[in-house]
Amino acid sequence: MPMKTMHIGLDDTDSPRKGCTTYVAAILVEKLQRLRAEFIDYPNLIRLNPNVPWKTRGNGALCLRMRYSQSDEERIKEAAINTVEEHADLEHKGTDPGIVFFERARIPNEVKTFSRNAITGIVNLKVALKLLKKCKVEAVGFKKGRGVIGGLAAIGAILEDDHTFEILAYRIPENRGSKRKVDQASIFQMNKATAPYTFNNVDQETRRILITPRGPDPIFFGIRGETADIVKKAFEIVQPLEPVERWVIFRTNQGTDAHLRGVKQLSQIKPHRPVVATGTVATNPKIIPRRHVIFSIKDRSAQIDCAAYEPTGLLRKVARKLIVGDYVEVYGGARAPSQDHPLTINLEKIRILKIAPEIIYHNPACRKCGKRLKSLGRNKGFRCRKCGSRYLELTKVEVKMKREIREGIYITSPRSQRHLTKPSLRYGVEKRYRPVKRLAKDWHFP
Ligand SMILES: [Zn+2]
Q1: What is the average pLDDT across 346-370?
Q2: Given this model, what pLDDT does residue 57 score?
Q3: Which residues contact 25 (CB under 8 A, 6 or more apart)?
């Protein structure tokens, strides 16, 4: 029997109360392994545009890429459909799973483009269905079938520009919903032994552990890093205090900034798009209730608000110190205008390109007694309150203040980073496309 190649895309199987599409993929890996599928890549975990308003969770889609014997084809598809049926939260109103079976080795450029659009912007079901039809691709949608959008997008995301890895460990069903039990000290030990090749394990500012999610989903913990080997090594250092049902290493676009797309001018910014834009600070930062910092930037085309939220910690501190005239590059998701605010960029990062001089004006000192003079009003001169001398000809003295911020890039603290946000540790270690030649010996269990 000749071997064929298939890419299976999956999305939208979970709900806020139950499940996780990575878990469906993990179960499917085990089943496909038994059907003698040969994986040609680690399962891909592709994070799509985090600013899509109807997506409240991580917005992650999955793709399994494999070679298989044609005689197993029907059983492979059946396994995928059964696994989604069994593990998706189909009773939840907003959960509309989709599976895409792409039976060709090469991914066409238009599917790659579709994928890029789903990561950086908004795509709709109609466009996805049209593309599936054009490429003669089989897809299965449950309920509204919106998951085929993410399924196709995951297939088209071949991680050409950069990628990272994440090992995800899952809990046994009876523990889901309860507090996750893991030896905290072992996590700090793991971080010490493997960072910077692993990242976002802990938040240094608050000492908070970031590898364990909260909530009822089946994920026990996840460790992110640069290679499959390092996340596996890190996983072995962490001491779980509850059973691990299974684990899988994923290759992913997390931590790569793949969602951000540059705009040439501010007038091109559209709601729900993650953008990179440059401009000059046009209004000094102000602190609004709940301690958010808002300032605006402008260029020749438009002026737009930027917001650094309280949980963003470090970024918010820097944003507060900007002044009119600073030249900056801002990174973040554009929030649609509402009654309360205009179109606003929710900041993930700021690069300060050029800081403006900060000049304040003092009244001059009295020439007789040295006391700071009092102004008598605009162009009316000054008077000394101590000795009574008057000075008509003097003007205010310019003082150049020392700025407290420097040029450079500032990123939200790890605890408030998006899945896609590239952390500072990853600058300079981006991985250009290298097809996976061989998978690590152990990349999943069972
Ligand atoms: Zn005086």
Answers
A1: 94
A2: 66
A3: 10, 43, 45, 62, 64, 248, 250
| Cα of 388 from ligand 1 centre, angstroms | 6
Question: Whose structure tokens read 């003097």?
Answer: 394
**Is 15 in contact with 88 (CB distance < 8 Å)?**
no
Q: Which of these, 26, 23, 22, 35, lies nearest to 72 by C-alpha position?
A: 35
Spacing, Cα 386 to ligand 1 middle (Å)? 5
No. of H helices and E strands in the chain? 8, 25
How far, in Å, is the centroid of ligand 1 from the Cα of 390? Answer: 8
Give distance in angstroms: CA of 400 to centre of ligand 1.
Answer: 25
Residue 147 CA to residue 12 CA, distance in Å, equals: 5
Q: 53: cis peptide before it, omega within 30°?
A: no
pLDDT, position 26? 97
What's the gap between Cα 315 and its chain centre? Answer: 15
Protein residues with C-beta less than 5 angstroms from the ion ligand 1: 366, 368-369, 371, 384, 386-387, 389
pLDDT digits (tens, 9 = 90+) for 148-200: 999 999 999 999 999 999 999 999 999 999 999 999 999 999 999 999 999 99
Cα 395 to ligand 1 centre (Å): 16
Is this prediction's pTM over 0.70?
yes
Q: Hey, what amino acid is at 397?
A: V
| Cα-to-centroid distance, 387 and ligand 1 (Å) | 4
Tell whether the model's pLDDT for residue 312 goes beyond 80: no
Between the CA of 394 and the centroid of ligand 1 the distance, in Å, is: 14
Mean pLDDT of the chain: 94
